[in-house]
């Protein structure tokens, strides 16, 4: 197994720190920063948790509040959304409880960008103005290597481990990947999940699987909101191709900011400082 890069080690440390700071709050609405003016609502990435956006909240020059939206089913067992329409209707309702009227400002990194686009579509359909839609290196084609959601338990468990600062070490032939994930967590006391009961740890792969299945089945519509596209330029498709993939799904102006990092490192300190400045300049 290859040794993790310096960026991967920094990412793992940042993930663990954010989980210690905000990971015990698993409500659907998570206030990341208080302030004045319209909030910046952050849609959950694939893992369902929005604590990763704490990094962004520290780099916004504006005084706007930052509010994370999180997936259902993290705090307690409950039915998960059946499709993107149900998921975005739920998140849009919670968003409007915080801010009853527009204009709204939305941000999403990775799969969170796809969810932010779908929330914007829902809000516009219901007659609300979306003043800004920030896409954090998201594409409609979902550039993930999970395969079909139903056949990817070991990949999902490795993804969860990595997302919360553990070394992903579950092989493809592992017959019980969730049990192995729990064992790996319990072998490293003092890290992110140390105080989490087993059922809460196991809720994460369940939420990830559901978010993955919903997203793979979703076909985005079209929104008219202005879009700010943040493109990670190390690896992956070129910026022009990623931006063009959203052309059928947006009718508003599109601004592009290139960020010198990999997709998975977009919220590390140096990239997120550039992101924060770009978003701050566009918030009302």
Automatic annotation (TrEMBL):
Keyword Hydrolase listed? The answer is: yes
Q: Which domain of life is it from?
A: Bacteria
Q: Name one GO molecular function term.
A: hydrolase activity
Q: Which GO terms describe its biological process?
A: lipid biosynthetic process
As given in the record, the signal peptide range reads: none
Query: Which UniProt keyword terms apply here?
Result: Hydrolase
**Limits of the Thioesterase TesA-like domain:** 41-283
InterPro entries on file: AB_hydrolase_fold (IPR029058), TEII (IPR012223), TesA-like (IPR020802), Thioesterase (IPR001031)
Q: Which Gene3D superfamilies match?
A: alpha/beta hydrolase
A Pfam family recorded for this sequence = Thioesterase
Q: Does the keyword Transcription apply?
A: no
- Spell out the family assignment given in the record's similarity comment: Belongs to the thioesterase family.
Q: Which PANTHER family did the record assign? A: S-ACYL FATTY ACID SYNTHASE THIOESTERASE, MEDIUM CHAIN, THIOESTERASE
What is the protein's given name? Thioesterase domain-containing protein
Say which species the protein is native to. Answer: Actinophytocola oryzae
């Amino acid at each position: 197994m290859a040794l993790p890069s310096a960026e991967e080690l920094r990412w793992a440390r940042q993930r663990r720190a954010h989980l210690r700071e905000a990971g015990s709050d698993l409500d659907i609405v998570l206030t990341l920063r208080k302030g004045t003016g319209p909030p910046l609502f952050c849609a959950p990435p694939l893992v369902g948790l929005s604590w990763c956006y704490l990094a962004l909240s520290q780099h916004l020059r504006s005084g706007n509040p930052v509010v994370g939206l999180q997936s259902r089913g993290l705090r307690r067992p409950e039915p998960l959304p059946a499709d993107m329409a149900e998921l975005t209707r739920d998140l849009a309702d919670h968003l409007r409880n915080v801010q009853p009227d527009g204009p709204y400002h939305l941000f999403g990194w990775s799969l969170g960008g796809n969810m932010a686009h779908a929330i914007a579509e829902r809000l516009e359909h219901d007659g609300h103005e979306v003043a800004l839609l920030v896409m954090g290196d998201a594409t409609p084609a979902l550039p993930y290597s999970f395969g079909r959601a139903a056949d990817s338990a070991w990949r999902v468990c490795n993804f969860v481990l990595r997302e919360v600062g553990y070394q992903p070490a579950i092989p493809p032939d592992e017959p019980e990947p969730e049990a192995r994930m729990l064992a790996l967590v319990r072998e490293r006391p003092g890290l992110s999940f140390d105080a989490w009961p087993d059922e809460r740890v196991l809720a994460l792969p369940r939420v990830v699987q559901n978010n993955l299945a919903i997203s793979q089945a979703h076909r985005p519509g079209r929104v008219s909101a202005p879009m700010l596209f943040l493109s990670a330029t190390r690896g992956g498709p070129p910026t022009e191709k990623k931006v063009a993939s959203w052309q059928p799904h947006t009718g508003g102006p599109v601004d592009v900011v290139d960020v010198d990092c990999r997709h998975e490192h977009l919220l590390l300190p140096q990239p997120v400082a550039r992101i924060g400045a770009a978003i701050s300049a566009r918030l009302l």
